[in-house]
Amino acid sequence: MITRPAVLLALCLAGALACARTSRAPARGPEVVPDRLVVLTFDDAVKSHYTTVAPLLERYGFPATFFVTEFPQPPFSDTTLYMTWAQIGDLNRRGFEVANHTWRHTHVDQMDSARFTDELRYVEEKLRSLGASTPMSFADPAYVTTPDAVRLLRDRGYTFARTGGDRAYDPVHDDPMLVPSWTLRETSRDTVLAALHEARDGHIVVLTIHGVPDTAHPWVTTPVAMFEELLRALREGGYRVVAMRDVTRYLPTERRPAAAHAAPR
Ligand SMILES: [Zn+2]
């Protein structure tokens, strides 16, 4: 015999399941993260990004994100070592993501919210003046982040903030404001090539690369031959290479920016 409370309980459970299904089934996505997914990111607007990296990426058909900044302070202020804003605009026209790495490469723990806002806005306005869309991706200078910085970035409509940490990124469980990455440089070749194997089971491998080569910051330089070795490993290993912004489709709804935050700034 089915009692009235049992029927009510069954109805409640069915309702709860329906609600749970509804809340987990957004109109679009998230998609399941495929194995062998790699995000390539390039920091600091180094000249070789324009002269060497972008042409090589185009030869392989690989998208990427370029996190751009200026270095107005000596000893890093020699502008001949960096891309011009016109060259950055050209990367955008060629389909690469150009994104924010602060105006003056200032570490986010060294700025109050007003200064951080100014540093973000400078790059946002530069990119807009070049015809690029308002950036949705940010990279923490020197991999430094703080809870206040995360809040401010989220309030300004950013979706991703990439940091360091040498581990794979899980878009379902990790905060997109704390996207971990490995850095390729002269001393980390073996570590990075081994890390590619971690791009599986819902995890994405995000790589940070500076200049190829990087004469402005030699401690993070990547030799051209090593970079080409990475590109060959990605192609021969059947990896899918994307830009940071392309990861949005794998984010659960609750990790995507609210519509109000995505308004122009
Ligand atoms: Zn940097």
What can you tell me about this protein's structure?
This protein has 265 residues and is of the alpha/beta class. The chain contains seven helices and eight strands. It has a single domain, classed as TIM Barrel, CATH 3.20.20. α2 packs parallel to α7. The chain starts with a helix and ends in a 23-residue tail after the last strand. The relative contact order is 0.18. The structure holds zinc ion (ZN). Zinc ion (ZN) binds next to loops.
How is this fold's topology laid out?
Layout: H1 4-23, E1 37-43, H2 47-60, E2 65-68, H3 85-93, E3 97-100, H4 113-129, E4 137-139, H5 147-155, E5 160-165, E6 179-184, H6 189-195, E7 205-209, H7 224-236, E8 240-242
Parallel strand pairs: 1-2, 1-7, 1-8, 2-3, 4-5, 5-6, 6-7
Helix pairs in contact: 2-7
Can I get a quick summary?
With 265 residues, the protein is of the alpha/beta class. Helix content is 34%, strand content 14%.
Q: Could you say what the CATH topology is called?
A: TIM Barrel
Q: How helix-rich are the residues, as a percent range?
A: 25-40%
Question: What hetero molecules are bound to the protein chains?
Answer: zinc ion
> Per CATH, which architecture?
Alpha-Beta Barrel
Total domain units: 1
